[in-house]
């Protein structure tokens, strides 16, 4: 049975995603950081790309805002803070430097 072009494309995209995530994980471990979940690395990538609102991160990643807040609390890379312009809006911001253990220094 011959693969359909869409199947080949999707397989290639999935392999590229896994390669990117594994490369990021390896780089973080070499730098002394603790391993993180794929969701946490996707949050990190999106924050570095300028997506900082918790609701927008949730929409992009297909998860709830609560999941974003939980993931941000469980990592020292970012934290969610209330936006000064809106009581209901939260933003994810990168934290300052982190120690090799992954805890804020």
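Q: What amino acid sequence fits the structure above?
A:
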């Amino acid at each position: 049975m011959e693969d359909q072009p869409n199947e080949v494309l999707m397989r290639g995209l999935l392999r590229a995603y896994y390669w990117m995530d594994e490369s990021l994980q390896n780089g973080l471990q070499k730098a002394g950081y603790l391993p993180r979940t794929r969701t946490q690395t996707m949050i990190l990538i999106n924050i570095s790309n300028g997506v900082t609102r918790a609701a927008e991160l949730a929409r992009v990643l297909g998860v709830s805002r609560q999941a974003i807040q939980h993931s941000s609390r469980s990592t020292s890379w970012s934290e969610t803070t209330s936006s000064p312009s809106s009581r209901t809006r939260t933003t994810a911001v990168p934290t300052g430097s982190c120690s090799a253990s992954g805890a804020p220094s």
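Q: And what stands out in the fold?
A: The CA atoms of residues 33 and 101 lie 6 Å apart.
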